[in-house]
Amino acid sequence: MWKDFMKNKAFLLMALPGAIWLVLFFYIPVLGNVVAFKDFQYSDGGFFKSLSQSPWVGFENFKFLFSSSNAYLITRNTVLYNVGFILINLLFAIVFAVILSEIRSKKMIKVYQTSMLLPYFISWVIISYFVYAFLSPDKGLLNAIITGNGGEAINWYNEPRFWPFILLFLGVWKGIGYNSIIYFASIMGIDPTYYEAAMVDGATKWQQIKNVTIPQLVPLITILSILAVGNIFKADFGLFYQIPRNSGALYEVTSVLDTYIYNGLTSSGDIGMASAAGLYQSVVGCILVVGANLFVRRFDEESALF
Fold first, then answer.
1. Angstrom distance (rounded) from CA 222 to CA 211
2. Could you read off the pLDDT of 131-147 as tens digits, one per residue?
3. Are 46 and 133 in contact (CB under 8 A)?
4. Side-chain half-sphere of 245: how many Cα atoms within 13 Å?
5. How far is CA 31 from the centre of its chain?
């Protein structure tokens, strides 16, 4: 044991900051989940004194999610949007990764990768202003084009029917660079002798992609899909809150679990309710990850996450 530690001490020291960060910001805060079962009221004595003095209420805080008349709506929106993101991101990420792998100019690959990755690092707040420049009812670019061609201006922020497509497009656009780079790195790690053997057999480029590239990507696709399924009850708060500008007229298609919790917290100030919602998301996510992994493990043990 000690010999192995000394042999790998350089790597362990490199991993130490990340391990400390996980303990401080992930494992220790888990103890705070007890707030979900209390009528938490913050007092001058600090968090721990407030926690000890707050009365237990059991599962009362969870009723906020399940007894609401909007429970079905927010659950439907959250799940369907995430399913759409998983499927569309998977398709476009693989397509773009394959395209990048066929580019022979290293300089152009860097240009394309940087261009695709840039949106990933832009805040949703900034993106919301760009979107508003296009969709503004009176000065937006799209309305200017529509009215310039004899059409009638659209009040985009009061028309729910357009927003599922807008949100899906923006979500995929922002994440496509990051997702494609992961698959691109995996493609670059495929043994080139597979492609050489395929070319000797007379395989076309499409046949090489279909019979060599895609099968080699299956383990990575499976692992990333399992992790994505674990987040199916979580939504990107910035996307669903900032982009529609929290317009009440759009709640039918933009209200998801995270924005619903936030709006409830800002109106009631009930920290216990927000903690219950976060705990609910985490527990459901854990169950989904374990279930998806067991399903994959049943058909292909090597592609399972654990």
1. 17
2. 999 999 888 899 999 88
3. no
4. 14
5. 25
Taking each helix axis from N to C end, the angle separating 163-188 and 214-230, rounded to the nearest 10 degrees, works out to 130
The domains of the chain, with CATH numbers, are: 68-299 (1.10.3720.10)
By the 10 Å C-beta count (0-12 exposed, 13-18 middle, 19+ buried), 208 is classed as middle
The separation between the first and the last C-alpha atoms of the chain, rounded to the nearest angstrom, is 24
Q: Rounded CA gap, 65 and 46, in Å?
A: 28
Write the CB contacts of 100 (distance below 8 Å, at least 6 apart in sequence).
109, 112, 113, 180, 184
* CA dist., res. 93 & res. 285, Å (int): 23
The identity of residue 235, as a single letter, is A
Cα(240)–Cα(257) distance, integer angstroms: 10
Is pLDDT at 300 greater than 90 in this prediction?
A: no
Instruction: Tell me the C-alpha distance between 113 and 116, whole Å.
Output: 5
What CA dihedral angle connects 283, 287, 289 and 291, to 10 degrees? 180
Token pair of 141 as six digits: 């670019």
CB 285 within 8 A of CB 233: yes
Neighbours of 81 (CB within 10 A): 22
Whole-Å CA distances, 265 to 51, 52, 63, 252, 259? 18, 22, 14, 19, 10
Chain segment 190-219, per-residue pLDDT in tens: 988 998 898 998 888 889 999 999 999 998
Tell me if 81 sits within 8 A of 256, measured CB to CB.
Answer: yes
| Three-state secondary-structure class, residue 305 | coil
